UniProtKB/TrEMBL annotation:
It is found in: Membrane. This is GDT1 family protein. The chain crosses the membrane at residues 6-29, 41-63, 69-87, 136-155, 175-196, 208-226. It comes from Helobdella robusta. Its main location: membrane. InterPro entries: GDT1-like (IPR001727), GDT1-like_CS (IPR049555). Keywords: Coiled coil, Membrane, Transmembrane, Transmembrane helix. Residues 88-122 form a coiled coil. The gene is 20195126. PROSITE patterns: UPF0016.
Length: 231
């Protein structure tokens, strides 16, 4: 198999896992899966993450108009910066960071549900029914699925994993980046919806950041051993 594809796949898979474990999207899936159907929550979240991965990969691929050697070494430098930043965050991070992030996401989701319930009550009291378009939409797609998709997509936008995917696609084979990224997201989201509260509250964000920093640095240093033309 092509070494470029393998490198892109492994890099994307590793980077996504260390970026997404204990991330906001992870907690969204974990909390929603405790209230609603795990399958529905998973499908909404993974569709959003897969779409974001493809969009990010093609954004990175668009930079191929720039000389190959330049994008390759610039991306490696950015990976090194990410790695150092994550190691610094791991060193200064509070041990209860995961619990705080979990409670913050839980609070946000509760507020959104209260807003939806309040709006539904106002509409009911005013005798306002859903528009035909909304009724048609909800006849095909459940509200939970849409909520999982929307919240995950918005939380992922501008996230570390999205930026990392763009950087990887700028230097590595796009197909490998996309497949590795989607698999990484699927594994993390599966853990979130299956483990739910247990994993969300006992995961060590400090350890994940430390491992993540090392992973980012490893792939940054790979530039010293792999020729850009091999990708």
């Amino acid at each position: 198999m092509d070494i470029g594809f393998i490198h892109a796949f492994l890099a994307s898979l590793s980077v996504i896992i260390v970026s997404e474990l204990g991330d906001k999207t992870f907690f969204i899936a974990a909390i929603m899966s405790m209230r609603y159907s795990r399958t529905t929550v998973f499908m909404g979240a993974i569709l959003a993450l897969a779409l974001m991965t493809v969009l990010s990969a093609f954004l990175g691929y668009a930079t191929t108009i720039i000389p190959r050697w330049l994008t390759y070494y610039v991306s490696c430098a950015l990976f090194a910066v990410f790695g150092i930043k994550m190691l610094k965050e791991a060193y200064t991070m509070d041990a209860n960071e995961a619990q705080e992030e979990y409670e913050e996401v839980q609070s946000e989701l509760r507020k959104k549900e209260e807003e939806v319930d309040k709006q539904a009550m106002v509409d009911l009291e005013a005798g306002i029914s859903r528009t035909p378009q909304r009724r048609l939409l909800f006849s095909f797609v459940s509200r939970v699925f849409l909520q999982s998709f929307t919240l995950t997509f918005l939380a992922e936008w501008g996230d570390r994993s999205q930026i990392a995917t763009i950087i990887l696609a700028a230097r590595d084979e796009v197909s490998g980046v996309i497949l590795g990224g989607i698999l990484g997201h699927a594994l993390c989201t599966s853990l979130a919806v299956i483990g739910g509260r247990c994993i969300a509250q006992h995961i060590s964000i400090k350890s994940v950041h430390f491992i993540g920093g090392v992973v980012f640095l490893i792939f940054a240093l790979s530039a010293l051993f792999i020729d850009p033309d091999d990708h």
